[in-house]
Amino acid sequence: MKYLWNKPQWQTIMQRKNSLPHALLLRGRAGVGKLDFATQLSHALLCQQPRTEQSNAEQACGACASCLWLNEGTHPDFRLISPEDDSNSESSTKKKTSKKTQISVDQIRQLNDYLSLSTHQVKGRRIILIAPAEALNLASANALLKMLEEPPANTLFLLVASQPQRLLPTIMSRCQAVDFPIPAKADAMAWLAEQGMSNPEATLAYAGGAPLVALQMQSQLETNDNLLKQLSMGGKLNPFSSAPLFLSAGMDGAIQLIQKWVFDLMSCKLAESAHYHAPQAATLQALCKSVNLSALVQFQKNLVQAKRAANHPLSNEMQLENLLLQYTKIFQ
Fold it and tell me: Within 10 Å of residue 104's Cβ, how many Cβ atoms?
């Protein structure tokens, strides 16, 4: 098991591996290992010689023909459906590539031809892994729904979603949900320490308890520390000199950082505790004494609107200057 905190879900599924429903929805916060779990589950279910661990949970052997095909991405009974790369090569020397954010209806329709074929192994299982499932648009979701309503024999659909609320209710109703909660803090911190993280507690808190997100954020910590020093100045912050520093984190990253800081300001104001910035708790406590509560609430709303318009063609630096100016005005 790659992540020990997902062991209960693994044991539950493997105990009934011969009587699984036609579709499982693996849902939970981003950064808890759902996609790795789904990939590992696919390997175990397709393995020709699964091995049993001390916990009596089967794992892929890693050596049979099926495992080798999966490792090479050529298994005839496995398909991964995810947003494709959109390549536009105007010249032979320069290729522009942008990442699509949606799973197209053509990708789902192509499954019809694939599913009409017999499985490679006699009476074998076929697995369709769709991740992230919330990337389905309305057309592709409806095309998938038809398959889920009349599922092909010996076929398991694995849908992985960090935002299941974006899925059609009719799709969710045709899947058996498997929940992946945030792991226990001690388990997550122990794993991050094994990955060589020097300060796992602070990073894990900033990542909202999601260990894989915390690991990805490690390289951002030094940049974040510099930006938090700016926000720690409260009403004395200079919006115009600080905006370029925040812009270095990107618009989405900068606004998200400000949102988390402001959330903790509100938390300290009302509950005297910091959720994301425990190391800066004393600074936040001092700042919240001079915060105008109604102005803080309004600024939180403005940040939500700014997040939605983060990629507006207007100057990002001007947008940040305006947000930071609003921030200085919440202090009395």
Answer: 18
In whole angstroms, what is the distance from residue 86 CA to residue 94 CA? 14
Query: Cβ distance 320 to 245 under 8 Å?
Result: no
Helix (H, G, I), strand (E, B) or coil at 20: coil
Distance (Å, rounded) from C-alpha 231 to C-alpha 238?
Answer: 10
Encoded amino acid at 275, one letter: H
Count of beta carbons in the 10 Å neighbourhood of residue 119: 16
Here the tokens at position 163 are 């935002």
Query: Quick one: which of 35, 16, 14 has its CA closest to 26?
Result: 35
Residue with tokens 């693994």: 10
Q: Residue 66 in contact with residue 75, Cβ under 8 Å? A: yes
Query: Is the CB of residue 61 less than 8 Å from the CB of residue 50?
Result: yes
Each of the 332 residues of the chain gets a pLDDT tens digit; together they read 789 999 999 999 999 998 999 999 999 999 999 999 999 999 999 999 998 875 557 899 999 999 999 999 999 999 999 997 443 333 333 344 345 789 999 999 999 889 888 677 756 789 999 999 999 999 999 999 999 999 988 999 999 999 999 999 999 999 999 999 999 999 999 999 999 988 888 889 888 899 999 998 876 776 788 899 999 999 999 999 999 999 888 888 899 899 999 999 999 999 989 988 888 999 999 999 999 999 999 999 999 999 887 766 567 889 999 999 999 999 98
Distance CA 211, CA 78 (A): 28
Helix (H, G, I), strand (E, B) or coil at 64: coil
- Helix ranges, 180-279 (H): 185-194, 200-206, 211-217, 221-231, 239-247, 251-271
Residues in the chain: 332
